[in-house]
Specification:
four-stranded antiparallel β-sheet; 17% strand; 381 residues; alpha/beta; Aspartate Aminotransferase, domain 2; 14 strands; Aspartate Aminotransferase, domain 1; eight-stranded mixed β-sheet
Length: 381
């Protein structure tokens, strides 16, 4: 294993939400639920933030010189997607952008469609914006979670104004391939349904034979019918530095509608968030490569250990640092509570549409992951 992340950083008594919310109950509970990593940020990011702090003035900020060009060049280099400066709408985070996107088309009572299971905000967006939720169920097929496209075709209708896509797919760890994305786009385009794609995990593809594809990059007509959400927060572990994400919206009418919904609600990103994001994209690809290798090792270790535990199984994780663990064969009324009492706080799958699953964050030092596994085994014993 790499020594880049040695020694492990103690977060139990810090301001970490992942650790702090469970530490109030018991300081010995390991936080393995919230989707941030326990791995230290890149030195170049820390240096850039310190350099910005040395300016000693922290007024309202605007995107620094070269910010948009840096992202434009990165998207073209990594995904062969050519985007334009005018397409960007700066946002405080991907989650609020989901709500703005849902709200920017149609009216109260319209439908919002998303796959299930999914990150819980995808399942909640419709209700919180006075829309109706239309699920597309996912099924495990040959160790891969796949969307039920027959169900999608049968249930989508003219009242379905938005399809919320998560790719790479949290919590099931999938990198959707080109055929799947083309199917999503074909169904949505034929119905006039806008696609809002959360691609925040795009740079955390673990399988070397997989490649992230922005759905908007597939064709001009898809591009014009889409909102794509990006951020450096997950790949470079920046959630706590201050929110900064960007929506890429090529269609000017859709972009104007989105901007109207976010106006006066979305906060302006701060100077430290801009400094950290620019350093990440400009100077930290070596760190990211090392991180992906470390996560890949953690994934393989976790997958091997889960396979040896009676009553547990997990599909192969192609991307991200989140494992989706099947616990239905345990026969427990509340598996989340059982593992919590055993000293491991996981994400309850009920919030993501599947009460028979738990989500585990393996974005941590290997020694912490080994302790998680030890406690889970003791709980099962």
């Amino acid at each position: 294993m790499s020594s880049l992340f040695d020694p492990p950083i103690e977060r139990r008594r810090s301001d970490s939400a992942k650790w702090g919310q469970v530490a109030r109950r018991d300081t010995d509970v390991i936080g393995a639920w919230l989707a941030d990593m326990d791995l230290p940020s890149a030195d170049k990011i820390i240096e850039a933030v310190k350099e910005r702090l040395d300016e000693r003035v922290f007024g309202y900020s605007m995107p620094p010189s070269g910010f948009f060009q840096l992202i434009i060049e990165r998207l073209e280099r990594k995904y062969a997607w050519k985007v334009e400066r005018d397409w960007f709408v700066i946002q405080p985070g991907v989650v609020p952008s989901l709500f703005f996107a849902t709200n920017c088309l149609g009216e109260y009572g319209d439908r919002v469609m998303a796959a299930r299971p999914n990150y819980h905000y995808f399942l909640e967006t419709a209700e919180r914006t006075d829309r109706l939720f239309q699920p597309v169920d996912c099924h495990l097929t040959q160790d891969r979670w796949e969307m039920d496209f027959d169900q999608m075709r049968q249930t989508i209708n003219p009242k379905t104004r938005a399809f919320l896509l998560c790719n790479p797919f949290n919590p099931v760890g999938r990198v959707l391939d080109q055929q799947e994305l083309e199917t999503v786009a074909e169904i949505c385009l034929s119905n006039g349904t806008m696609i809002c794609a959360d691609e925040i995990h795009a740079e955390l593809v673990l399988d070397e034979d997989k490649q992230h594809i922005p759905i908007a990059s597939l064709a001009p007509e898809i591009e014009q019918n889409s909102i794509t959400l990006f951020s450096a927060a997950k790949a470079f572990n920046l959630p706590g530095i201050g929110g900064l994400s960007f929506a890429i919206i090529p269609n000017p009418e859709l972009r104007a509608a989105f901007s109207r919904r976010s106006y006066g609600v979305a906060t302006h990103p701060g100077a430290l968030a801009y400094a950290a994001t620019m350093a990440a994209y400009r100077d930290c690809d070596d760190w990211l490569e090392e991180t992906i290798s470390y996560l890949r090792g953690n994934r393989d270790y976790l997958q091997s250990e889960i396979a040896q535990m009676n009553g547990l199984s997990m599909a192969h994780v192609e991307a991200s640092f989140l494992a989706w663990i099947d616990v239905k064969d345990l026969g427990l009324s509340n598996p989340y509570q059982a593992f919590l009492e055993g000293g491991v706080a996981l994400s309850d799958g009920k919030e993501m549409g599947r009460s028979d699953h738990l989500r585990l964050n393996f974005g941590c030092h290997r020694s912490i992951l080994e302790e998680i596994i030890r406690r889970m085994k003791l709980t099962l014993a």
